[in-house]
Design a protein that fits this description.
two-stranded antiparallel ribbon, about 40% helix, mainly alpha, about 10% strand, 4 helices, single chain, 4 strands, His-Me finger endonuclease fold
């Protein structure tokens, strides 16, 4: 039996990873505590990577992103679905200003869910094409073949 230095619980030695540098050959913290520490570290690093990516790709600081998020109440600017702040949130920008996947930061239009962002991309951000698609759907609403 061994006591974890973090949670202070007495556990069987199988609950500890091996560490040949220690006198007893085991880590001082149990496997559960080490997993919690690793997850916390991973989550903190993941958020940092997301923030750096937003800044380098879209020219948005964490404060800029939070302002957009608050202005949209954490919802997609088009369909109003609730967004998640990680990968489920797409930053939309005007491709006429900045073609490709990066933005100067001045042409960011808003936050979109993946489906709405994909949809705009499929219509090449062309309002006339989107209007034609809207008209098509209205004309054929309820049509059964």
């Amino acid at each position: 039996m061994k006591r974890c230095t973090r949670c202070k619980q007495l556990k069987d030695e199988i609950g500890f990873h091996k560490n040949h540098t220690q006198k007893n050959g085991l880590q001082s913290r149990c496997k559960v505590c080490l997993a919690e520490i690793a997850k916390t570290r991973y989550d903190r690093n993941k958020q940092h990577v997301v923030e750096i990516n937003r800044l380098s790709t879209y020219g948005l600081t964490p404060e800029d992103f939070q302002r957009l998020w608050a202005a949209q109440n954490g919802r997609c600017a088009i369909c109003l679905r609730r967004l998640t702040s990680g990968r489920g949130c797409n930053i939309d920008h005007d491709h006429a200003c900045c073609p490709g996947t990066t933005s100067c930061g001045q042409c960011v239009r808003g936050l979109l869910c993946g489906l709405c962002n994909w949809g705009l991309g499929q219509f090449h951000d062309d309002p006339d094409l989107l209007e034609a698609a809207r008209d098509y759907l209205i004309i054929h609403r309820g049509t059964v073949h």
